[in-house]
Amino acid sequence: MDGVNDSVVSEFILIGLSNSQEIYLFLFWFFSVFYMRIILGNLFIMFTVIIDSHLHSPMYFLLANLSLLDLDLSSTTVPKMISDLFTCCNIISFPKFLIQIFFIHVMGGVEMVLLIAMAYDRYTAICKPLHYLTIMNPNMCVVLVLAAWTIGVIHAVSQFVFVINLPFCGPNNMGSFYCDFPRVIKLACIDTYRLEFVVTANSGLISMGTFFFLIVSYIFILVTVRNHSSKDLSKAFFTLSAHITVVVLFFAPCMFLYVWPFPTKSLDTFFAIVNFVVTPVLNPAIYTLRNKDMKMAMRRLSGQVVSSREITDFTGKNTR
What we know:
By secondary structure, this protein is mainly α. The protein has a single domain, classed as Rhodopsin 7-helix transmembrane proteins (Rhopdopsin 7-helix transmembrane proteins, Up-down Bundle), CATH 1.20.1070. It is 78% helix and 2% strand. It contains 12 helices and 2 strands. The chain has helices spanning 2-6, 21-51, 58-75, 78-87, 94-127, 132-135, 138-163, 181-185, 193-228, 233-259, 265-289, 292-319, and strands at 11-13, 91-93. Strands 1-2 form a two-stranded antiparallel ribbon. The longest helix is centred in the middle third of the chain and has 36 residues, at 193-228. The model is unreliable at 1-5 (pLDDT under 50).
């Protein structure tokens, strides 16, 4: 903690998305609507999985956890961004700056591992259907989720310990609308070449390696299905296409933000918005619109809500 005490900088300036007041107002409503959709969409999936007994299976247990992570990851940056757009005050204090960085990488690391767990779940269900319930038992699901959270925390802490001891005595302009390691390191008052390499290896190369591992695993599943029965190939591809879409949406921005050697502010902002705003909105739509079980569960839940409302209205009329 000595590095924090030696730092002269007590707050950082986050660059806004625009200098125009009219565009500020548009972006405020745009991100507010998107954030409400993120909250409602992901909470609806979690609530549906918990309430509907037909969805008490490993795949939907992992899906509910993915929705929780999407909501948490978005909440690390979007509320602050909406607040900045409303107040036109793009300043973040040093403690809040550290907290935002830490939780961004915790949630990102957990989601990375959870997507691997979901790929393993689909591999077991498609390639080993007779042993699926034995392998993906409730204990295994809990272990996978706990492992994801443990690895996510380790991933964040392994970088956080370096940043928290960096001295900040010069410029405090972050150059982005949120805080993250690559931008923070450049503001330090010491030579950070080695630390930049650590961040690239930790976040960038791991993201890239995980992405290619997942894509190869999905290809392996499809090839395995094709060798056994070409008739089931289209069904397996339809099932996996949702997972592949989610993987691409999550990892493409990560690889650009941490590996691309020639970053530009416009592309950096675009991919950050995709990661924190667009992907958490699309994930619920992808899994609900392309999943028959989720559609049926939504209809059952809607039917129960309508029935309970009718019973309440009927009871109220009789009481009167």
